[in-house]
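Recall the central idea of this unit: under ordinary conditions, the amino acid sequence of a chain determines the structure it adopts. In this exercise we apply that idea directly, starting from the sequence alone.
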Amino acid sequence: MRILLVEDDRLLGDGVQAGLNGAGFAVDWVRDGEAALGALAGEGFAAVVLDLGLPRRDGRSVLAALRAGGNPVPVLVLTARDQVSDKVDALDLGADDYVIKPFDLDELAARLRALVRRSQGRAAACLQHGELRLDPAGRTVFLRGEAVALTGKEFDLLRMLLDAAGR
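Accordingly, the structure predicted from this sequence is:
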């Protein structure tokens, strides 16, 4: 699943990108608001992780432009701003979730999985098709109750296929 990370801090961006890659996400990383809008105009992302304090164009402005343009991509705001008014503002502008730095990478990955799942109209955490069951969080696959060993690429491809089932 492809995620856009919009974060200007190199150390934090490196860590988030590596952590989300390790959790099975493909992460494109940009470092300013203008680059974020450019990336979002041309590519299909499953979700966006958006910092608010960005150079060239702040995250609030990026979010407002995204929603004004009718882009429904799920947006998780990841910021150091911890005031209730900042949270309310971002959520009312169209953010789908709000996480305050510092944060736990496992929680961030779980929140992203939940956002993407809900944006696809699914409530269940696992994907199921017939007797095949895929658990995105555990990166496990079962067929008729038996574990199936897959490489990372095989797992990602199967997940894409299951996400697109019926289309």
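The two ends are 17 Å apart (CA to CA).
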